Amino acid sequence: MGPLAGITVIEMAGIGPTPFAGMALADLGAEVILIERKPANGNAGSNDCQRRTELFHRGKKSMAVDLKSPQAQQLLLQLISQADVLLEGYRPNVMERLGLGPEPCINANPNLIYARLTGYGQSGPLAQATGHEPNYTGLSGALWYGGRPQHEPTAPLTTMGDVGGGSMVLIMGILSALLHVSKGGQGQVVDAAISDGSAYLSTLMWTLKHAGHIDEQFGHGWADGAAPWNQTYQCSDGQYVTVCALEPPFYQALLQGLALTSEPLLQQQWNRTKWPEATSLLRQIFRAQPQQHWCELFDGSDACVGPVLSFEQAAQHPHNQQRNTFVKVNELTQPAPAPRFSHSTTEVGSVPAVGGHNDELLRRFEIDAELQQQLRHSGTI
């Protein structure tokens, strides 16, 4: 049994990183109950072939619920009252409109962990904005150093491998093992390899591969650089914007913003034969105006267009400032801890001087005076 055996998670079905989080919890032994929308036609069968490629739902249990039914809230609150974690990735206030916001859920279960994942967070000027990964990482500054001279920024070093596939996977393992011990289990070795972890993080890409969206030869699918509506474009001032208008309504918002609804090259979003020419056209259009022009033009729209910011620009962006995404400690600007907690607080400490806590730690761990003297005399400390 995994270290999270005995933990019950209610996951509200969504897309992207939230189902991946649910998958990870299920992989670690948690019982993950996926709340999916009941099909309008109750007799309609699911597409088993497509379903089997949805790797991010592996190991979960599924319950289909008509969330618009008056009884749905009562049913889900009963489930939530007996769960340990509620996991949701909707836009802010969607769960509240369903009657399943934090207040009623935590009233039903005071020990509930109510976990929310969105692109821009629950608060801030962009909280309700649409977007996808390149928009989020562009805003955060994380995308900036993935660039090269005369080349658009792409995912930078350390993000997916060292930190994503290494540090974050290791932390997940440590916390799971700690919880296992707290429930009476044994301590154990957590063997985290960046190669394993980065493979694990690519599960959503494997899903796209199995579904036929990408293949072994990159540069032909929408997810690996071929689609004009999933690109990073350079602006007239040398800055960049990300575009990821995947869903049809977002694609239409992009065309409307660019006054290209009648452009033949862009009439059919999924006509791959038109993608190279359409990409060239959009590259010319975005290069005609500075980054700020495009940010102002698409502000408040659903076109999934956003800036690629440098570290300094990211720290000054109003959304990041309102959410205190960055803090300054000892005159050094740096990312603040994430995620946020409704009761617990986090803080950024100072970097200690080498050996600066020797005496304090010797006292805390009650190292006897004779041994302390030997350690100092031998130069061990």
Describe this entry's structure for a reader.
It is a single chain. The strands form three sheets. The protein has a five-stranded parallel β-sheet with strand order 3-2-1-4-5, with helices on both faces. It has 16 helices and ten strands. It has 381 residues and is α/β, with parallel strands linked by helices. The model has no long low-confidence stretch (mean pLDDT 87). It has helices at residues 17-27, 48-51, 70-81, 94-97, 102-108, 133-140, 159-182, 194-201, 203-210, 248-257, 275-286, 291-298, 311-316, 318-322, 358-364, 369-377, and strands at 8-12, 31-37, 61-65, 85-88, 113-116, 230-234, 240-244, 305-308, 326-329, 332-335. The chain is globular, with a radius of gyration of 24 Å. It has two domains: 8-202 and 342-378, Rossmann fold (3-Layer(aba) Sandwich); 230-308, formyl-coa transferase, domain 3 (2-Layer Sandwich), CATH 3.30.1540.10.
Give a short overview.
The protein is α/β, with parallel strands linked by helices and 381 residues long. Helix content is 38%, strand content 12%.
Instruction: Kindly state the number of beta strands.
Output: 10
Number of domains: 2
Using only C-alpha atoms, the radius of gyration works out to 24 Å
Approximate helicity band: 25-40%
Mean pLDDT: 87
Q: Counting H and I runs of at least 4 residues, what is the number of helices?
A: 16
Shape: globular
Largest sheet: 5 strands, parallel
Distance between the amino and carboxyl termini:
43 Å
Order of strands, main sheet, comes to: 3-2-1-4-5
Query: What's the name of the CATH homologous superfamily of the largest domain?
Result: Crotonobetainyl-coa:carnitine coa-transferase, domain 1
Beta-strand share of residues? 5-15%
